[in-house]
Amino acid sequence: MTKADKINLLQFVTLTGMFINPVDDKNVVSFIHGYELGTKHKCGFSQLSKQLLTDKYKINYSSDSWPGQITRLAKKQSSSWVTTFKRVALEIVADERHGGLNKPMKDILKKRILSLIRRVNPLGDIWFNDSWIEEWLSLCLVKNIWFKQLWTDNEWTIIKSIDKHVQADNVFVNKSDYIPTPELVKLKEQYDTKTSTNR
């Protein structure tokens, strides 16, 4: 997998809706297969997925290939197929055995996560809804060392706290108007303060 492949895959994972519609398992698989065909199978994403899912997650490889492995892992983790795919793809791209993430790659992921934090608004935001939670869970792999290393200590403390609220389903005051909880708003304000003082 080349640096260009990694950047292309990161852009696909972070901005999936700009590449395919609807965003679902069939279209994701079609995109990946088409991309691999375009690289004459040098990208190797399918093989790397198979290895990661088999070795780390102990998900058996079968006739349904790596998409089937994603299906079984998603069920095991009570997660959606797309969220599980994105998390697996990020692990593959960030793997140090394949060169890890360079600065432009880190910037792609950080930029998208920062856009999610900016959507936390006490007055509401058109993009702050159930899909916000899904995207947060897809991109914020807080248990991975490489993910922690993307952030300063102050940023990391806040990112981790936001993630705890997301995991506990403490995101909206109520789901009828998708207003963020006061705790989430406070964390967003803390993040803004910390980043402005670091500039």
Describe how the helices and strands are arranged.
Blueprint: H1 3-14, H2 25-38, H3 45-55, H4 65-76, H5 81-94, H6 103-118, H7 130-139, H8 145-148, H9 153-167, H10 182-198
What's the gyration radius in Å? 17 Å
Number-wise, the strands total 0
Question: What number is the mean pLDDT?
Answer: 95
| Largest beta-sheet characterization | none
List its traits.
199 residues, mainly alpha, 2 domains, 63% helix
3D structure, described in words:
By secondary structure, the chain is mostly helical. It folds into two domains: 1-100, no CATH class; 102-199, no CATH class. Helices cover 63% and strands 0% of the residues. It has ten helices and no strands. The radius of gyration is 17 Å and the shape is globular. The two termini are 34 Å apart.
Short description:
With 199 residues, the protein is an all-alpha fold. It has helices at residues 3-14, 25-38, 45-55, 65-76, 81-94, 103-118, 130-139, 145-148, 153-167, 182-198. The protein contains 10 helices and no strands.
